[in-house]
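Here we describe the complex-level prediction in full. Unlike the single-chain runs in Section 2.1, the four entities below were treated as one system.
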Amino acid sequence: MTATSNKSQLAYDFIKQRIVSGRYTPGYRLVLATIAAELGVSVVPVREAIRRLEAERLVTFQRNVGAQVAMLDEREYLYTMQTLALVEGYATALSAPLVTPGQVRRAREVNERMRESLTHFRPHEFTRQNFEFHSLLFENCPNPHVLDLVHRGWDRLANLRDSTFSFVPGRAHESVDEHERLLRLIEQGADPDVVERAAREHRTHTLDAFLAHQGARLLDD
Amino acid sequence: MTATSNKSQLAYDFIKQRIVSGRYTPGYRLVLATIAAELGVSVVPVREAIRRLEAERLVTFQRNVGAQVAMLDEREYLYTMQTLALVEGYATALSAPLVTPGQVRRAREVNERMRESLTHFRPHEFTRQNFEFHSLLFENCPNPHVLDLVHRGWDRLANLRDSTFSFVPGRAHESVDEHERLLRLIEQGADPDVVERAAREHRTHTLDAFLAHQGARLLDD
DNA sequence: GAATCTGAAATCGTATACGATCGCCGGGTG
DNA sequence: CACCCGGCGATCGTATACGATTTCAGATTC
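The structure predicted for the assembly as a whole is:
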């Protein structure tokens, strides 16, 4: 049978996929019975899936009211990006000595494609490449707990992520330059602390750019 | 009615309490029906509670077999302490500028009690005070996501924690000295990076001491 | 016209029931 | 004697059922 198993897992994957892909946008109301019907299961496994997503902060839950995809206001964005800067910076540093020359080459290729695409800028495509780039640098992190936190951070921001670069296109250009600098550090086997600092600041720079933009937008309105 | 709410939450608190307090030791098998009977509820809320604990890595789960309190072998301990060093270091740094003089005073009092108790050393008591001390320093962290990760790390190590100091009593002495150094940095409003590094290294030193002890023990056997 | 009440619809919360799966133990077979 | 196999008990997985709670529209009152 192809139906390997476990409907709770099925529901979990289903919902998570839809959140990360942006089909369920923040605030979208997750009605148990509806999802259960869509999947052809009862509500019980769906409830369990939602509990897990709740513990991962992907959905919020209110007793007797229900679940909805976690809202991501400016404050939540700040908290999440700050946390991601922390854990991704560390993961990148731990991963750095283990990154193979082949991975460096591939990362550089991705970054060069990103640089070329700066002229005819497509935020969504750029965002995808951005993840691919960073993925190559942190995936070798030998501490699975840290790596898991990194993935959770990216997941949480996944559907919003386009907008960071679409709102602040200038940041994309700087970002590509910082990527190249980061690659050089890794190539030359720089001190882990230096790599960590560079990776962390790369992300906080994006955060700062976004916040500056938000501030400006608020003044505009 | 006193029974304010939600049996799923009740089960969650109940199980977590028992894990953290050490009544359910690592490997302890969590049988749904048993726990449900103890609480006077059905298995459904208990299952949900276990799903959440699973997402927090406090319990492991195997389909059709059941849940058990997460085992903490040397490798898991390493991963968890390393992660805690990362997030607690950062939380302490973010918290530092917000720590009040009163909190510093209380932290110093706790640390002096720890110092006094070094002569007639009680690992369990020392461990409790150790948490109280660090709590005072990181609880003002303004980023709730980071703070939550810190709490999860401590929870995960809670029942094991005695043994760190009971196995490596020499570490307790150094620990008290490092606490005082950390307090001085906070008092003088040191650079956040300096505070972060000090707090992180404080924890990695404990980890290193434990690993050295483990290594030595392995050679002894 | 605004505030409040009322009841129905939507949705959640939990109990119960029963089929499915796993692990173990005892008996058969080479 | 070692190995395999079949059945049994324990436990999980999920569906269904129904009571509890929230929400909101529409009527009612001041």
